[in-house]
Specification:
alpha+beta, D-Maltodextrin-Binding Protein, domain 2, 14-stranded mixed β-sheet
């Protein structure tokens, strides 16, 4: 039986500061901003934090398809069997005390035997079965499709039987995807908890103003009193949490300035954020935290039979050497990005730190021209179609790449489409020669490679028409639970790099902006703020 207890309070404190490597920087400034009424405060001995979010959840019911508003709020409303204190890190028990593998498709999990929800209902294994059966029956939870049955073993033990042996990440996804609630509370709710959820969380919803505000109050009766057994997301560092739904990013900026909110992760405009960063006119009163976003920008080579890149590794490498990814970081993102050193970023739990110090097709025009000669194009003269979505960032990236390629005699025609048409054309081997795409995962860099390079997803070839049995063997090996080792991951990354089927360009940074009362942040795997687990100094 595998215990899921958190390692130690000392480690918890350290990881809080640099959760998932997401808090990359935090800075002050030189001039004072304006603030009419401080938001995070202590009123009658009760501390309050106000969080600005851009999207309305619409409903708070636990078993429905997730939207952006739900993603921003649900970790404050419900609890799950497990959490993960680092991005792509090991499972940390929340409701689950321990687990064991029974056979190649069956896992037993044991709950703590003293879990009580905010209505006083004691949680048992039958509630796990009820929660998962209800979620599966809703038809809105695709990650649960791997489950065959969930059954009750005894009062506090349940068994998950899967349809086949699990792939890497499946177990964590199943156990962290669905809120677990008591059947009694759900059946007592007149609207299936659409407005007032009843969960085991340390907070309960006390007010919902549709499209405007959600208020949560700490109950003071949280079932888990042993802090060494709490995942970071289970902390309760503030008495009242208010989510304020503010749809426009510009209005979020105003709300921060005026003190209507304390913190938001929804200001995506680097120009707007700059006002809060060192040197900005609001920097003295605010802190900006930078974190790596999940999606990685990559360049894909069309390797379909008959294309210029098929069976021409030298040409693919020439293109890679001709592109200055640092130029993309500065030119597209204004420095608010990181040039990649692999197909995936250091944010992911299985990323190998040594990749950062290894050469990865650093800009080298002379080498690019030499490779063009080896590829059969000593004088250039090559014309390519560069397929992209019509997003501003990607079109700007394509324009910069177009300029770099012109230096080695390649003329790239940029062909932009809206997202749905882009995906359709990506399946047409005659529609493009190179394309810019994004790939992301909520845990492992290997899963980025699976999304793009696993032939099981594309009728026997990769997304860019490659048929490579060695690549496929390495993908399948590295994406199993047993084969997910550092050696296998490194070997697969090296193979991808050597063959240059896909080139990692950059990952941009996201921003969390807060006033000075917020002294540390915690983000979930989708980069939403978990306000209860942030740290505060309400004396400021």
């Amino acid at each position: 039986m595998k215990s899921l207890r958190f390692k130690s309070a000392i480690m918890a404190a350290a990881m809080f500061v640099v959760f998932v490597g997401n808090q990359l920087s935090a800075g002050g400034g030189s001039q004072s901003g304006t603030s009419s009424a401080p938001a995070a405060s202590s009123v009658a001995g009760k501390s309050i934090v106000r969080v600005g979010i851009q999207f309305d959840p619409g409903t708070l019911t636990p078993f429905t398809a997730r939207n952006a508003g739900m993603v921003a709020t649900y970790r404050s409303l419900y609890e799950y069997l497990i959490d993960r204190d680092t991005f792509g890190g090991e499972m940390v028990g929340c409701l689950m005390k321990s687990w064991k593998q029974v056979d190649n498709v069956t896992y037993q999990i044991t709950l703590y035997d003293y879990i009580v929800d905010s209505a006083g209902n004691k949680m048992k294994a039958s509630d796990i079965k009820f929660s998962y059966d209800t979620a599966i029956a809703s038809g809105t939870q695709p990650k649960l499709s791997v489950i065959d049955t969930v059954s009750v073993v005894d009062q506090y033990t349940a068994a998950f039987k899967f349809k086949s042996p699990l792939a890497l990440g499946d177990l964590e996804a199943v156990w962290s995807e669905i809120p677990v609630i008591t059947e009694a509370a759900y059946k007592a709710s007149p609207d299936k908890m659409a407005t007032i959820p009843i969960s085991t969380h340390a907070y309960k919803v006390t007010e919902v103003s549709a499209g405007s505000k959600i208020v949560l109050q700490k109950t003071g009766k949280y079932w888990q009193t042993d802090t060494s057994k709490m995942p970071l997301a289970a902390k309760s560092n503030v008495d009242t949490i208010e989510f304020h739904i503010i749809r426009e990013a510009a209005q979020l900026v105003i709300a921060l300035e005026t003190g209507a909110i304390d913190i938001t992760a929804n200001i995506g405009n680097a120009r707007q954020v700059s006002r809060f960063q060192p040197g900005g006119n609001l920097a003295n009163n605010f802190t900006v935290y930078n974190y790596m976003n999940n999606p990685c920008y990559v360049l894909l080579f069309n390797c379909a039979k008959g294309n210029v890149f098929a069976d021409n590794g030298a040409l693919r490498q020439a293109v890679a050497y001709a592109i200055d990814t640092k130029g993309i970081v500065d030119g597209v993102f204004g420095g608010n990005a990181v040039a990649l050193k692999a197909v995936g970023s250091s944010k992911y739990g299985d990323y190998i730190k040594a990749w950062d110090s290894k050469p990865y097709y650093e800009y080298d025009l002379a080498k690019a021209k030499s490779l063009m000669s080896q590829a059969g194009y000593p004088n250039g003269g090559l014309k390519l179609k560069l397929l992209v979505t019509n997003s501003e960032a990607i079109v700007n990236m394509a324009t910069i790449i177009q300029g770099y390629l012109s230096q080695i005699g390649i003329t790239a025609e940029i062909v932009p489409y809206e997202a749905a048409m882009f995906k359709s054309l990506q399946n047409d081997p005659t529609a493009y020669d190179i394309c810019i795409d994004t790939y992301a995962s909520t845990d492992y860099v290997v899963n980025i490679w699976k999304l793009s390079m696993d032939s099981r997803n594309y009728n026997g070839r990769t997304v860019n028409f490659i048929t490579d049995s060695k690549l496929q063997s390495q993908i399948e090996q590295s994406s199993t639970i047993q084969g997910h080792t550092a050696a296998n991951i490194d070997a697969l990354s090296t193979y991808l790099n050597d063959n240059m089927y896909i080139y990692g360009l950059a990952v941009d940074l996201g921003f969390v902006v807060s006033n000075k009362r917020v002294t540390g942040i915690l983000l979930d795997s989708r980069n939403s703020v978990i306000p209860a687990s942030c740290s505060y100094d309400f004396s400021k």
